[in-house]
Design brief:
Layout: E1 8-10, E2 16-18, E3 27-34, E4 37-44, E5 47-52, E6 55-61, E7 65-72, E8 75-81, E9 86-91, E10 97-102, E11 105-111, E12 117-122, E13 129-133
Antiparallel strand pairs: 1-2, 2-7, 3-4, 4-5, 5-6, 6-9, 7-8, 8-13, 9-12, 10-11, 10-13
């Protein structure tokens, strides 16, 4: 399993990787600069949360490692790793319909709430899962 040294990093393709579900105690990094935005990550075995400019972006319960997180317009792509089934919430546009794909398989559509949160579950275990939301 992968963990992110330093809890958050910029990848060569401009995406973000963050999180560490192996930690027993809460850890965080604030004011991580990435393309003019300020990110904050909080992570440990029970939760991983990412904020951009103090606005909600990502949360998983229990904690996860997220690799190559990219959000462009109405699309979000990332790979997620964890030790058990995980509930993921993404901060997107309010009251809009999105399709969720896990490893290329359409797992259905969901509508964001008034706050723009899209919530879905992913079965995690031995293999990382590729997530695409559009």
């Amino acid at each position: 399993m992968t963990v992110i040294e330093g809890l958050i990093r910029t990848e060569g393709d401009g995406s973000l990787s963050f999180g560490n579900y192996e930690l027993d105690a809460k850890s965080k990094v604030s004011d991580f600069e990435h393309f003019g935005d300020s990110y904050k990550v909080k992570t440990y075995k029970e939760i991983t949360k990412l904020e951009r400019n103090d606005l909600f972006v990502y949360e998983s319960v229990p904690g996860t490692v997220v690799l190559n997180f990219s959000q462009k317009g109405d699309e979000v792509d990332f790979t997620v790793e964890g030790f058990e089934d995980t509930q993921i919430a993404l901060g997107l546009e309010a009251e809009k319909e999105y399709r969720v794909y896990v490893d290329g398989v359409d797992v259905g559509s969901a509508r964001t709430n008034l706050g723009g949160k899209l919530v879905f579950s992913v079965e995690l275990g031995d293999e990382p899962k590729q997530i695409h939301v559009v």
